[in-house]
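Handout for the seminar on molecular recognition.
Each group receives one record of this type.
Step one: identify the two inputs.
Step two: read the structure output and locate the region that could contact magnesium ion.
Step three: write two sentences on what you found, then compare them with the reference statements printed after the record.
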Amino acid sequence: MDVLEKRVPLRTVRAIIFDFDGTLAVLNIDFSLMRERVFDLIRRYGVNEDSIKERYLLEIIDEVYPIIWKNDPSSAKEFYEKAHQILHDVEMDAAREGKLIPRGKETLKSLRQRGIKVGIITRNCEEAVRKVFPEIDDYCDAFISRDSVENVKPHPGHLNSMLEALKVSGEDSIMVGDHLIDIQAGKIAGMITVGVLTGRIKRNEFEEAGADYVLKDANGICELVKE
Ligand SMILES: [Mg+2]
């Protein structure tokens, strides 16, 4: 309790923004298969993989695109489409087996009944999210997948679009996610950040990244914002 009181005046919270995969949903996206296929493609387009600086696939595709474009703009476009098709295929495979976390819907519903706005942001594609959560629009005030923004989180553009859509400021909002990207993105936007242990990131890693709170799962947020 002392930790709660020390950190933030939670009564002022106007919005809670959730990540989707690993936070609101149990989804086993095969990232190593995805990576393997994208890197195969990169090699086929003659790009030296050792020169790649970005860490995550979406950003890697954006990094490689202009390198190919310099020699041949039409191959660059073809590369981009093929790479995104790989991501989409692997994400849809996972979505067919995916499901929401137990009590996830109830959590979202109860927050909104208390007048707290709910947003959902994800680096996943919209189609895969809707496959797992067809009624998503009935449970949140805004949903922004990677298909609707130029740059995805941790780029500030993704969260800023969400804050704008919800008409709230970062200071009045909480970001909840299972990955360090979520914590980084939330901190850049000046939000309170909450890490959940339903993904691969451990408590100490969240603490090192500066998360304000670490919860067992996203349902714990109801208890956290209780007056
Ligand atoms: Mg996640």
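Reference statements: Residues 1-6 have pLDDT under 50 and may be disordered. The radius of gyration is 18 Å.
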